[in-house]
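Subgroup meeting minutes
Present: P.N., E.W., G.H.
Scribe: E.W.

1. P.N. recapped why we're keeping a running log of single-chain structure predictions: easier to compare across weeks, and new members can see raw inputs and outputs side by side.
2. G.H. added today's entry (183 aa).
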Amino acid sequence: MHCKRIWEADRRRGVSLVELLVVIFLVAIIASISVPFLGGVIEKRSLDNEVDFISGTISTSRTKAIEKGFPFRLDFDSSKMLFLVYGDRNSNGMKDDGEEVLGPYKLRSGITFGSAASIGPNDTQIPEDGISLVDNRLSFNSIGSSNAGTIYLKKAQRTAAIRIMSATGAVVCWIYDGKWRKK
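Output recorded in log:
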């Protein structure tokens, strides 16, 4: 009798085709349910990452202006979905040969300047091109002050607002998912 149990156990070692198909079917069902949720998470992360990158670049530009003692400027081009940073050593308001340049930085795929919201944080007006800076330029002077404005980024129905405060050069970010909230 003992020998018979060993033989029966050896016979059941593998997995049948039916069992394998059931497992594959269950995995497919779980994957089909989770993919839409995963897409939303990826979309949110992509916009959040872009906001973090631009905010970090703005802070870096402010720091460089203070350390180097001359203006640093960020020029935004909403038609090409990019921005350029440069140290304006001679303070002429233009990027010249020999000046320190960072970028140009192109917005990530699917992200544009603009807004899915009709009104900005604190009931502010949103410009058509998504950039409320004068001449689409942010300029930091040697003490770290800048012009004020907001840069709006959009991906699908989600919007982010990056606001720069003039006196301090501080950056405040908001996210719009049906209503505005600070990031």
